[in-house]
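Lecture notes, continued. The same structure-token format from the folding unit now serves as the input rather than the output. Read the line below as a description of shape only.
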């Protein structure tokens, strides 16, 4: 297997446009993916978290772009997205830091923070028809 570079660029946190409600907070992690000399841009993963749960430890539901299904391991992708998200928000967050047990809700925050992580890829991502 070969390595690709997952380049995280920003997060749109807790957006009603993405489906946030009184029960769930939905955020979007934006990233690019470099495979060799090919750069796949404007990709995103949605992150869903139940309102009122422990910010830094509660389970996150993370989607993967349809164009990457079968190209990379979902488990590895999920771990990297969660790590990037939790490094930005939560008890030790670089963008917004909350103490354990805090009940804070701030909507439509945009956090720009570049971070690159290697990820194994299995096949080239599907190209968009257009």
């Amino acid at each position: 297997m070969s390595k690709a570079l997952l380049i995280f660029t920003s997060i749109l946190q807790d957006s009603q446009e993405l489906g946030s409600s009184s029960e769930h907070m939905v955020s979007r992690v934006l990233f690019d993916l470099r495979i060799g000399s090919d750069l796949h841009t404007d990709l995103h993963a949605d992150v869903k978290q139940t309102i009122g749960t422990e910010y830094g430890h509660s389970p996150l539901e993370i989607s993967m772009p349809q164009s990457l299904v079968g190209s990379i391991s979902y488990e590895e992708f999920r771990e990297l997205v969660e790590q990037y998200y939790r490094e930005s928000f939560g008890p030790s967050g670089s963008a917004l830091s909350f103490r354990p047990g805090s009940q804070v809700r701030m909507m439509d925050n945009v956090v720009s923070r570049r971070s690159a992580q290697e990820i194994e890829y299995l096949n080239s991502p599907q190209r968009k028809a257009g």
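Point for the exam: Strands lie at 2-13, 24-35, 38-50, 61-62, 89-90, 96-97, 109-121.
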